[in-house]
Design a protein that fits this description.
By secondary structure, the chain is an alpha/beta fold. The chain has helices spanning 21-33, 44-53, 70-80, 94-102, 115-128, 165-176, 184-192, 200-213, and strands spanning 13-17, 37-41, 58-62, 85-90, 107-111, 140-142, 145-148, 153-156, 159-160, 181-183, 223-226, 230-233. The chain contains eight helices and twelve strands. Helix 1 (21-33) packs across helix 5 (115-128), helix 2 runs parallel beside helix 3 (70-80) and helix 6 (165-176) crosses helix 7.
């Protein structure tokens, strides 16, 4: 039996979608050597067909695909079921990166990139999908929200929330640290596990999270902005509505 490196999720399947055969081959090679099962697709329809045949544990998705772009592929995949997505974007295309995060990408890597960095990002995102340790899996409740870290399930007033991996992790972190203000740099380090990176990633995820947990996202009460600092979770907001 093939021995997989200890840092790879056993049997994790990664779908690499890129129309550049050189990039796809390099990425596939590095992921394969890291112990992942890798599928490849060169365009959007092929990616959707391969995902339908063998649902991936994670998708590495180029934003600029011919015909159907990566944003549409991400939307359609998310319509079929939850799946973590890491988008590949051209350097400098900040608007495109933000759009990718807005449609639900969990992470992005800018081209040209280090394949080793991409493998580390894949490991980081997949690690977040593992069940929480027993000591950290107690049910969290506040502001009309309930989060079960072990089941990776979140509800608002009993209604299940459709959260991406990073949105779930961000909400869980807020519930575990109520009333404390966190800078975006702190959230990136504690939730994403990065010591540096594009802070707009945090901003976009907070905006997306507000759209799902706030009664009026334009006037957030649960995840509040602390001007000059960052964000704070208010456990009292909506408490009377539980």
């Amino acid at each position: 039996m093939e021995q997989r490196p200890p840092n790879a999720e056993a049997g994790a399947r990664v779908l690499v979608v890129d129309d550049d055969p050189t990039v796809a081959e390099i990425v596939t090679g590095y992921l394969d050597r890291a112990g992942y099962v890798v599928d490849r697709a060169g365009d959007g329809p092929d990616a959707l067909a391969r995902a339908a045949a063998h649902w991936p544990d994670l998708v590495v998705l180029d934003l600029m695909l011919p015909g159907m772009d990566g944003l549409e592929v991400c939307r359609r995949m998310r319509g079929q079921g939850p799946v973590p997505v890491i988008m590949l974007t051209a350097r400098g295309d900040e608007d495109d990166r933000i759009l990718g995060l807005e449609v639900g990408a969990d992470d992005y890597v800018t081209k040209p990139f280090s394949p080793r960095e991409l493998v580390l990002r894949v490991e980081s995102v997949l690690r977040r999908t593992r069940p929480a340790p027993a000591a950290a899996s107690g049910l969290l409740r506040a502001a009309g929200l309930a989060v079960d870290p072990a089941a990776r399930r979140a509800t608002k007033h009993g209604n299940e929330l459709a959260l991406t991996i990073r949105e779930f992790d961000l909400l869980t972190f807020f519930l575990r640290h109520p009333g404390r203000a966190f800078a975006r740099e702190e959230l990136m380090r504690e939730v994403w596990g990065w010591d540096f990176g594009d802070l707009s990633t945090v901003t976009v995820h907070v905006r997306r999270l507000r759209g799902k947990v706030e009664d009026d996202p334009a006037r957030p009460r649960i995840v509040q902005t602390v001007w000059g600092v960052g964000y704070r979770f208010d456990p009292a907001a909506g408490a009377g509505e539980e």
